[in-house]
């Protein structure tokens, strides 16, 4: 059985698709592409697809991940192209590797988010960010199944900065970009929780809802403060192919030539 790991996006209007909507669209794409899927046992077998840490409905993403199990081996890049062509525009399959290591979900320990705050001056955003980072605890509330839940939004934040999307232009409507790095903890701290925290510590309230996009997710590097590619270990574990063997090089999956 071969396992393939895929990276996909949620762009434009498709950011409003729920996880269930994506599942239905992806399973249709599997059928259209005639992917030799492995199925679960039992009275209602379904395709063996493992989803990892899906972004909330309404947020865009450049870094969603899933894993599929196949009964027959396929070239990952060819499979990616077939699936991408069968998906709605905006739900784009942009990367594929053969799973050669275990624990993809264990490598998704942090996310990088971008939040566009239209109507907010960069200077105001910078002051709010400084107040948030200076606080030891920032309590926020979120409605859960059992009612309102109070938790700390500060501890999970590994990085937060305010950026100017148009540093060389003046006279336009104010806009600030927040770049957020947040660890995946329990309870999960989402971008909207951080916005609630900014409102609590600095009364920062954007006049319109923020446009939120996940730029990356993966293993958090404590030394550099960066989030690494979770598919990197699979690429590095791929066997090297000698260029002296043209036949082997022609049939090797993309990414198998380097460690």
Automatic annotation (TrEMBL):
User: For the DUF2344 domain, which residue ranges apply?
Assistant: 3-191
Biased composition regions of type Low complexity, renumbered to the chain: 238-259
Q: Where is this region: Disordered?
A: 221-259
**Highest taxon of source:** Bacteria
A Pfam family annotated for this chain is DUF2344
Question: By what name is this protein known?
Answer: TIGR03936 family radical SAM-associated protein
Biological source species: Streptomyces mutomycini
């Amino acid at each position: 059985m071969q396992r393939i790991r895929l990276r996909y996006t949620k762009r434009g209007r498709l950011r409003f698709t729920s996880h269930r909507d994506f599942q239905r669209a992806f399973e249709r794409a599997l059928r259209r592409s005639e992917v030799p899927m492995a199925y679960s046992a039992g009275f209602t077998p379904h395709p063996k697809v493992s989803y990892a840490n899906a972004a909330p409905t309404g947020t865009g993403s450049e870094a969603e991940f899933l894993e599929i199990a196949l009964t027959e081996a396929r070239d990952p890049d060819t499979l990616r192209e077939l699936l991408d062509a069968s998906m709605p525009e905006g739900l784009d399959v942009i990367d594929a590797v053969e799973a050669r290591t275990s624990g993809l979900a264990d490598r998704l320990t942090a996310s990088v988010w971008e939040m566009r705050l239209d109507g907010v001056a960069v200077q105001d955003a910078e002051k709010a960010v400084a107040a948030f980072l200076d606080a030891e605890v920032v309590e926020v509330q979120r409605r859960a199944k059992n009612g309102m839940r109070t938790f700390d939004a500060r501890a999970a934040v590994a990085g937060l900065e305010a950026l100017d999307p148009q540093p060389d232009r003046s006279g336009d409507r104010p806009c600030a970009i927040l770049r957020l790095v947040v660890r995946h903890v329990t309870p999960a701290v989402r971008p909207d929780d951080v916005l609630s925290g900014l409102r609590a510590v600095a009364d920062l309230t954007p006049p319109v809802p923020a446009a939120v996009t996940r730029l990356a997710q993966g293993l958090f590097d404590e030394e550099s403060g960066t989030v690494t590619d979770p598919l990197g270990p699979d690429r590095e574990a791929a066997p090297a192919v000698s260029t002296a063997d043209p036949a082997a090089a022609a049939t090797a999956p993309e990414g198998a030539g380097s460690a």
